[in-house]
Amino acid sequence: MLKKINKFEYFAPSTLAEVISLLAEYKGKAKLYAGGTDVLVQMKQRKITPEYIIDIKKIPELNGITYSPEGELTIGALVTHGQFAISKNVPEKFTMLKEASLAVGSVQTRNRGTIVGNICTSSPAADTPPALLALDAGLKLVSSTGERTVKINDFFTGPFKNILKDTEIITEILIPGLPENSGGVYLWHSKITEEDETLVGVGIVLTVDNLENRVCTNLRIGLGSVAPTPMRAVKAEDFLKGKIVDEETIKQTAEIAANESLPRSRAEYRKEMVKVQTKRALSQALKRIER
Question: What domains can you pick out in the chain, each with its CATH number?
């Protein structure tokens, strides 16, 4: 028996204002389409059946990467993982986000899928959210009633759920500048499947007072695939702050991060991998600061 094909109306606006107007008009019935690596799959699986598709690929203002004199990095909604990974506009200190982008799927997926799309899908196993949590990223949300900026830490509400309204679009990712003597790393451990899903992802941004004392002045740890949503390991962060970063404190921080994680399956193994990857990431972040 042939499956019934759901019909939808297709729009290809050329301005952001048109997108916002369409979202307001077809509230709850429209889906934005950029890379399509998630939306098309969900439509084929009949997980979503939108009546309207709004293709945003023709809007140039959404496809940019800028680095300000103040050290802030801005990533547009149409920037793909592949595009970001090779961009010369991304300073070396944001290498960890390139590492997270390169962890996403296959080459074909990275060349089509966008970083913002990865956020909007809100998969607990997505690779870029843990890195963006560690980078303390903000998201610019725009609708017909105005715009708001939210921290990515406040964006996710559950597995594949977030605070984005039907009438809103994420136009930019806003990453603040990193202090001096900071280093970031993203490490992941894959579950060998057809989709090569990330079993554990760890993003670290470490800041020390100087290279001589190596006292931690700030730490952010983002974890992926070990809780219902991407999460911060705040207890582990607080533990290391004010302490000398050495082999023993790194080990203790990693153990605390592992105990904070809340995996729903293969819990013991996932917690152990959080400990292993957090320890490795902290050590590598310190080496990047020293370089």
Answer: 9-55 (3.30.43.10), 60-175 (3.30.465.10), 182-290 (3.30.390.50)
Confirm whether pTM is higher than 0.85: yes
Non-local CB neighbours of 181 within 8 Å, separated by 6+ positions = 207, 208, 209, 210, 211, 217, 289
pLDDT, one tens digit per residue, over 16-67 is 999 999 999 999 899 998 987 778 778 877 878 889 999 999 999 999 999 9
DSSP assignments along the chain, one per residue: -PPPPPP-EEE--SSHHHHHHHHHHTTTTEEEESS-TTHHHHHHTTS---SEEEE-TT-GGGS-EEE-TTS-EEEETT-BHHHHHT-TTS-GGGHHHHHHHHTSS-HHHHHH-BHHHHHHHT-TT-SHHHHHHHTT-EEEEEETTEEEEEEGGGTEEETTEES--TT-EEEEEEEPPPPSSEEEEEEEEE--STT--EEEEEEEEEEES-TTT-BEEEEEEEEESSSSS-EE-HHHHHHHTTSB-SHHHHHHHHHHHHHH---SSSHHHHHHHHHHHHHHHHHHHHHHHH-
Q: How confident is the model at residue 7 (pLDDT cuts 50, 70, 90)?
A: confident
Question: Tens digit of pLDDT for each residue in 66-89?
Answer: 999 999 999 999 999 999 999 998
Work out whether strand 9-11 and strand 52-55 pair parallel, antiparallel, or are unpaired: parallel
